[in-house]
Structure formats: structure tokens, C-alpha cells
Amino acid sequence: MYKDSLLAHLPLLLLTLCFSFVVNAQEPDIQKGKSLFNANCAACHKLNKRAVGPALAGVSAKYDKEWLYSWIKNSTAMVKSGDAQAVAIYEEYNGSVMTSFPQLSNEDIDNILAYTDYTPPAPAVPVAQATGTAQSDGGFSNDLILVILLLVLAALVVMLFLVNKTLHKIATANGIDTVKKEKEKRTPLWKAYAQNPFLVFVTVVFLLLSSAYVGYSYLMQVGIDQGYMPIQPIHYSHKIHAGDNQIECKYCHSSARVSKHSGIPSLNVCMNCHMNIAEYNGEEDLEKGYTKEFYTNEIKKLYKAVGWDEQTQSYTGETQPVKWVRIHNLPDFVYFNHAQHVSVAGVACQKCHGPVEEMEIMYQHSSLTMGWCINCHRETNVNVKDNGYYTKIHEELSKKYGVDKLTAAQMGGLECGKCHY
Amino acid sequence: MKKVSILAVLSSLLLVSCFDSSKPNYQYFPNMYESVGYETYAESTAFNNGIEAQLPAEGSVARGWAPYDYSDTNDGYESAKADLKSPLALTDEHRAEGKELYGVYCAVCHGSKGDGQGILMKREKFLGIPSYADRDITEGSIYHVLMYGKNAMGSHAGQVNATERWQIAQHVMYLRNELTK
After folding, report:
1. Which of A180-184, A300-304, A385-389 has the lowest mean pLDDT?
2. Cβ of B125 and A363 within 8 Å?
3. What residues have CB less than 8 Å from A227, skipping those under 6 apart?
4. Is the CB of A314 inside 8 Å of chain B's CB atoms?
5. pTM here?
6. Which residues of B touch A39 (CB under 8 A)?
7. Of A41, A221, A246, which has the smallest distance from its Cβ to B108's Cβ?
8. ipTM at complex level
9. Which of A188, A212, B93, B116 is most buried per CB count within 10 Å?
């Protein structure tokens, strides 16, 4: 009886236990700690890796709690007051000042520390197993299906052969002649064809025209690199940077705003982000081999070229140039200025370079021929608004051509000397 | 007709096989195409390290360059924060320029409103980017940080020039005022 009643009360007991656990305010909240950590600390601290500041996993074991409270709330004052531990950290991290967080309460800090002390139960093993079996499952079944299909096909062929053989036997047994009779002799088709002058004439004309067409097309594509997609020394994905992460083209190619060249970003521009982002955690494309390890390895190539030591978070000074392969290259006899098109005309980069934000590997989208340039100049209206300097000439030109909106061509965009000199 | 179709197939195969997308196409009269002078970023035997793009000689001064007297230290930051003032007038044109540049160079992390909710923050590539409202910043400190970088933020001096940095600083101060309103 006693046992029974205990069993009946067990759920209730558990519930009350859980409830008291939730109600207990003293218990630090890991979830809250995580969001506080991400909002306040993560700019400079990572859990398991040195960043601007030290790695914070297990930090509460290294320092006294009271010391941590006062350090987080006002680290500068502690360094100034000459606290030995504070000064040691300050020196170790090259005198970078930790932002003070007076707005954090002791309870908040407890939550953050609970998060930094929390080690998630290792899910790696079951996950790996699961993916492993899934993969082998997929491969197994695919192969099996193929083999079965092949076997069935072979069986069908054999059966067909056998059926044919028996039918022949039956036919000969019944006295039916299965051998085809010889056909009557006729003029062969090619002879009849050759004897017809009209057909020969038409064929010759067609051949001449088509070979002229093929020859002309071949010659016209000489020197055009549309679709040129070289392999670059570092697999830089425009799709990830400009597409998924929506980084502006001009963030990296900043000289496109102000100079003739759009400019290949120097590696310090890469490091503006990759000082922090040392590994890839986004989507993978397993079919093409673009795994997380693959991308992470490409980031390591950047670190090697720029001479960045991940362990000490500092530059070693040993650099090596990255030999990017140039894709868009106009002939030497053409002048093209990026600033004129990007800053003055306000042409979007994609207008000439195509959907770069979707390109995993960069390629030349447009033909970059003169006809292609001219065509755009003929079609594009010039934005004459708010350009006081040109107001008068725009008026005159509009009057001259009898149009409201001037195209680039009407502004002189077809003159030879504009691009060839 | 059969011959013609075979010919067409053969010739198109020939054309297709000629085009290897990882190699540049043939050129007609390459010496009209290839520059005699050194091309930007090209390899060149003229210099010891084999590249055309060289660092400026030591001590050279770019046209329009102005000295920046604040050092890349905590003290430099503090004094820039206190003393450094923008030489630009606070005009709408400057702020419009600054807004556009902010959109290109800053918004990806700091968010278009300056609340620290840029796309890289939302996608958790960066974490803990503060809102401008939570930081005690002045136009001088913004300029200083753009110049040298601070903590996880790198220097942007190579991407925006002095005038542009001031324009961005003006816009950031405007955003901060909007946020703290």
C-alpha cells in the first residue's frame, strides 16, 4: 500500500521539484547568460579561442568571483589602482582596454559566468554516427539499385535472344523461309542525287553559306573572353560574401569609386572581418566538395599569405603575395574608367559584371566588346538632375536632339577619342 | 544532307573544344592587346619582389595627405575623443555622402540605424556589436577608430580617405542622436 501511494505521488513530487527549481532565483540562467554574452562580450571574447581578449571558457575558476564583478564593471579603474592581476592581464593583451559594463548587475554576471562554465554534453559522437550511416545508406542503396537495374537489363537481353532463337527454330520447322529475298536493283540514292543539278546547286550554296557562317563566328569570337573562369589561388566565393552576407561590392573594391581600376582588395581588407572569422560555418555544397573544412582551409590560406598567427592573434610579418588571376582585361588600346561609371553615372556593378552575388567562382559575364559598350551608351539615359555644372550644356543638347532625356551616346559617348587615344 | 549535318556537328565540336573556360581566349595581334607598360598588379621583373604594385618609397607623401597627430594607443584614442574636431562644416551634402559611405563600409556590421544589428550580426558571423547609443563616442573618436581600428574592428583608412572619414563620422553622430532621442 505504501509503495503504491508513493508511486501515485511521484509525478506530483517531481513537478513540485521542477517548479521549485525554476522559481529559485539564485540559480544562474545559462540561456540568459548566453544572450548577455553574445550581446556584450562576444565582440572581443570567444569561448575557446583567444580573440581580442582571452578565451572565457572556465574563467570563473581562474579568478575570484568578487574580483570578476569589479573587473567587468570597471576594468580601467582596477588597472589604475594597481591590482596585480588586473595589470597582468592588461599587459598580456598589449594594453587593450576592456570596455566597462557598469550596467551589468552581479546577477547578470553570474548568468554570463554560468554560460562560460557550461560545457554542452558532447553531441559529436551520435551525430557523426547518424550522418555516417545516412551516407553509407544512401551510397549503398544507390549502388544496389544500379546493379539490380543492370542485372535486369542483362536478363532481358538474354531473354530476347532466346525468344528470337526459338522463333527461328519454329519457323524453320514449319517450313517458312526467314531469309529475306534480294531486292530489285535500283539506282542508288546518291547517284540519283548527283544526277540532279538543282539539288547539287542548292547543296553547294548551303555548304558555302554554312561554312562562311561557322568561319565568321569563329573569327568574331577571337579575343573575347566571355565565360572565362580561371582557377584562383584562394577559392574566394563571391556568393558567400556578396550574396549570403550582403557585403557591398565597394567594401572590398573601394577604389572603384575613385579610380580607373576597381582594384583587388589588399589582404588587410580581408582581415577586417577574418581577424574574427577563422572558420566557415555556413551552408555546404557536398556535391562539389565545398565543405566547411574546404572553406576553412581557404581562410587558412589567407592567414598564411597575410602572415597572421591565430594563436597569438598577431601578425608575424612574414607575408607572401597572392597571385590572383585577372579575369576582366580590356585591350591596351581601350580606356575604361571605373570611377566614371560607378560614381558619376551610378551604374550598378552587376550591369557589366553580371550576378556576381550568385557566383561561387567568378567569371566574365559580359563580352566586353566595343559593340557591347556602344549599345549600352545608346540605351542608357544620363542622370542630369542636380548637376549644376552641366545644366546649360544639357539644355542645349536636349534642344539640339529634340529629346527630354539624353543618352550617353548623345553626350559624346560614341566619340572615338573618348575611349581610344 | 547527312554530310552537311556531320560537318556542322564536327565544326561545332571543334569550336566547343577550342573554348576552355579556365584559359583566356586567343587574341588577334596580341601586341595590340598587351600593354607595353606595366599593367596594374601585373608581375614584373623591374622590381626585386617581382610585382608591379610597390609600396610608396619611405617618407613619400601622397598628394592631399595631411598628418594625423594622434597615435594608435589608448592615450591617442582618449585625446582624439576629447580634442579632435571635424574640419568639415556640418552640411546636408556631407551627411548624404556620409550616409552612402556608411551604407557601404559600416552598415554590414553596425546596422543601417547604428544599433549594432547589421546583417553579419544577424547571421552571427560577428557577435556583440554594440549600439552607438551604448557607447560614449565623439566625432573625434569615430575618426580615430576609422583611422586605426579598435579591438575587433580593423582600420578602414585604406578604403575611405580623410574627408570621407569625417563625412562618415558626421553620419554616425547623427545616427547616435537618433538612437538616444
Report:
1. A180-184
2. no
3. A363, A364, B19, B21
4. no
5. 0.73
6. 127-128
7. A246
8. 0.86
9. B116
A225–B25 C-beta distance less than 8 A: yes
Residues in chain A closer than 8 A to B25 (CB atoms):
221-225, 228
Query: What does the block give as the cell for A374?
Result: 556602344
Dihedral pair phi/psi, residue A381, rounded to 5°: -80, 140
pLDDT (mean) for B106-126: 88
Residues B14-63: tens digit of each pLDDT: 555 556 788 888 888 888 888 888 888 888 888 888 888 888 889 898 88
Environment class of A191 (CB within 10 Å of its CB; exposed 0-12, middle 13-18, buried 19+): exposed
Using the Cβ of A123 and the Cβ atoms of chain B, whether some distance falls under 8 Å is answered with no
Residue A9 has pLDDT above 50, yes or no: yes
DSSP symbol at A315: E
- Which of A72, A251, A261 to probe by mutation at the B interface, max B CB count within 10 Å? A251
- Cell 573625434 -> residue: B140
Does residue A76 belong to the interface with chain B, where contact is any CB pair within 8 Å? no
Beta bridge partners of A315: A308
Q: Is B153 on the interface with A (CB under 8 A)?
A: yes
Please report the domains of chain B, with CATH numbers, ordered by start residue. 74-180 (1.10.760.10)
Query: What is the residue extent of each domain of chain A?
Result: 23-117, 190-220, 369-421
C-alpha distances out from residue A380 to A256, A376, A392, A396, Å: 20, 6, 20, 19
pLDDT in tens, B57-94: 898 988 878 888 898 888 899 999 998 988 888 899 99
CA–CA dist A21, A27 (Å, integer): 8
The mean of the pLDDT values for chain A is: 82
The CA radius of gyration of chain B, in Å to the nearest whole number, is 26
